[in-house]
Amino acid sequence: MNLFFAWRYFNSKKSTTAINVIAWISIVAMTFGTAALILVLSVFNGFEGLVKSLYSSFYTDLKIFPAQGKVLSLTQDQLNKLKGFSGVENYSLIAEEKALLQNGEQQSIVSLKGVDENYQYVSGVAKSIIRGTFELGDAENAKIVLGAGIENAIGVQSDRNLFPLVIHIPKRTTGNNLQLNSNIASGVLNSSGAFAIQQDFDNKYAITNLAFVKGMMGMATNEYSAVEISTTDETNADEIKNNIAQFLGKEYLVLTRFEQNRNLYSIMQAEKWVIFAVLCLILIVAAFNIIGALTMLVLEKEKDISVLYALGGSTNFIQKIFLSTGMLLAVIGGAMGMLLATAVAWLQVEYKLIPLQGGSFLINYFPVQLKLSDYLLVGISVIVIALLASWIPSRKAALQKFSLRSE
User: How far is CA 369 from CA 42, 51, 298, 303, 348, in A?
Assistant: First the structure.
């Protein structure tokens, strides 16, 4: 019944044309406000998904660190049991240390990462080679794959460099409580390729074989810096993590991909909520049009209100009519906005209508990713804002009874 009256009041001809005009303006404002909110969130989702995909190419589903110090010890029996865990697809043993990489007079500080033959199956680095091949050699004939930024810093082309590179690494004593030794280990490597994933990795990492790094650092056979693990289903990473942590004990720290990049993901989530809060101001501004339209409608329908009271209508009944009218304006505008946002997003996905300026990013267009949760969030926001905006004029209409009696 309330919706029936609301639709009649909205659709009927008014004595003052301005009421209809303001009502449609409020619908248009809600339409564009809703569309803008969904589109901006979808673009943010697109960038967020792109960044996560880049980081997931380097960071593995799970990673085991030492709880203290920089070295962990794992026996072959522990490694065999680790591989047999349900959900564990593969693992790679890692030895990592800061090092100085030289090409003649040019040099750069790098994070030298020694990896075993399984690394290409747990990480996406091997799929991100832009020059040369992913070849790491062995302890006697070591080869190195450089991040694109490091390659540029030391002035080499990894796939055609004729002269070996020199690496300097601080030697360390064995054991978990490590102290820097005064000696510096030096070695030579030939570059085999270069990878490009994301600037944070490209400017920091160089990858070679595990035996070479362990030999230079003086690590024992069963000592490593970390173990990187790929899972059969990333959605079960937390459960697998808990099982591994329980098996290994408190001397080991097991982290998921999210926990390895907690600051990054937390910042992205905070940015999304801040953007959402700022864009909600558009809907709040649009809600002022609803207040204006309903206030004028209440003045227009004074006689109707008095008739409804005479027929036994209650204060709540009158208030609900005008609340429903305000909600009707918001729902029409919100629905049209969602349809408009969906159409624009589809066009962007299919035809890349809006380009990214500058040409320095990995893609040359704005990425868009629509999520059902964003539609639900925006829909609830539209309803709440419209409800608050409609309450003042609807309350005024409900109190019209007392003003009529006083007259």
Answer: 5, 13, 42, 50, 10
pLDDT at 100: 96
pLDDT at 13: 58
Phi first, then psi: give them for residue 362, nearest 5 degrees: -70, -30
User: Using CA atoms, how far apart are residues 287 and 327, in angstroms rounded to an integer?
Assistant: 11
CA dihedral 29, 30, 35, 38 (to 10 degrees): 140
Query: Taking the model in full, what pTM does it have?
Result: 0.79
- The whole-angstrom separation of Cα 297 and Cα 314 is 19
**Single-letter amino acid code for the residue at 287:** A
First to last CA, the chain: 29
Q: How far is CA 356 from CA 293, 349, 363, 364, in A?
A: 40, 14, 8, 5
Where do we find the tokens 């639900």?
A: 376
Q: How far is CA 114 from CA 6, 210, 400, in A?
A: 71, 4, 80
CA distance 115 to 208: 6
| Domains in the chain: boundaries | 2-55+264-406, 60-260
Sign of CA dihedral 290, 293, 298, 299: positive
On the question of pLDDT at 407 being above 60, the answer is no
Please state, in angstroms and as integers, the Cα–Cα distance from residue 79 to each residue in 30, 118, 209, 216, 395, following that order.
59, 13, 19, 23, 70
Neighbours of 333 (CB within 10 A): 27
